[in-house]
Description:
Helix content is 36%, strand content 20%. The chain is α+β, with helices and mostly antiparallel strands.
Amino acid sequence: MINRATDTTDSYRIGYISGHRRAVRRVSALILAVSLFCAGIGVTAVDAYAAKSGAADTQEELDANVEARKSLPVETNEVEGWPAGPEIGSEAAILMNVDTGAILYAKNIDEELYPASTTKLLTCLLAQENGHMTDMVPFSYEAVHSVPSDGSSIGMDAGQSITLEQCLYGIMVGSANEVANAVAEYTAGSMDAFTDMMNERAAELGCKHSHFTNANGLQDEDHYTSAYDLALIAREYFSNDMLSRIANTPKYHFEPTDTQPDDFYLKNKHALITGEIPYEGICGGKTGFTGDSRQTLVTCCEQDGMRLICVVMMQETPDQFYDTATLFDYGYSNFSLVNVTDYETAFTTEEKSFFKTGSDIFGNSKPFLKMNPDSRIILPKNVDFDELETEVSYDTDDAVVQIFYRFHGRDLGSALVDISENNQPGYEFEHVTPEEIEEGHTGITIEQEGKTIFLNVKMLILVVLAVAVVLGIIIVLIRLGREYHFSGRRNGRRRRRERKHRGRHGDLYV
């Protein structure tokens, strides 16, 4: 029998929920079980379901797998001086800072594994980026009936429709596979076209170990990702406030409308979101499970202004939640999100010509460059800022200079260096008012031998004029001196000629 594991993260409905269709599914399942028994196939209905879901392992085998995975190496533990991370039973795990992208904990983060329903983070991200929340999303026959009967759904029927916003709640809270299909058709025109969008968007985010074949995460050998790639997707997802709010909803109420007649609630299965396992600062997340993927979990948390994303892949329930809490404890206990300007001394505007020259010509200049006050990095609490390695890069579109900070090769984040608002280049005179000139707000910057020199235009003009006047006076004096000197020489020559003439003609002129 083909092992076709499906996502079993489902929701429950209160009230009438397409009762006829569900009854038909139950009867069909009962008939199938009876037929198998009568045909002499030595498999009970429960055994058939277990084989289909990939859950044939005994609990002892599953526990043994968890213990074996605890011994797998943690890459970040191999970094000298890095805070030691915990042993967990997940096959792969990562702890990433949302603001900087710094990786605090890494275990098999590039291994290609099945994401199950955590796929839906990318589905909702694309839907939000390409749609409008008030648009109505119709449900086609294919969107509804391509989902296996034991796959998670919220019971939508072909021909019904709900808003895109309701769809996102159905996907993130109820893990509804048919809703993910409908959103894919709404966004791209077809489910196949949507998977192309998924792979393109994943590549844009930097994913290198991912390939998606559907919008919902149903098991497929060619549908895979890695813990690192999933964290990149989650980082982008949780950078959106609306998506974060939807992903942090413990329960959602669907009310009947003209296009959807049922009244029901969805309950989130993420125990850290519902509070079944209490943890401070949870911002949202997504569960996932198939027989092949096992439990997969993505969670975002914020404490003291530091947002972290945790991804655990291939774990057993309920340890995926406890592994996540353990990694969050590790992150908040051993790392801080710090403002670079509070620590940096090597690139300060007061001391280094990197920002301001000591030669202040013709006026009092202000720093031409300044470090962006919002630049922050992750700093291990057992590491001094002075121990960090820095690299200056001019290859950036966001600022003049970007300074990267690392600790033994591990990226911690970067700081941007911008042009000071008070010292914009003053050579665009058509944009400068007389009042600004009078106030001394204009200037010229000169790059010389690695130093930036600021020239005060007002003072420069006055000095040039003064120099011109002085030069003019000097020229006049020189010309007057020359005229006087030449006149004396002419009178002397005339007297000498007269004396010579008298010597030749005697008393002629007496």
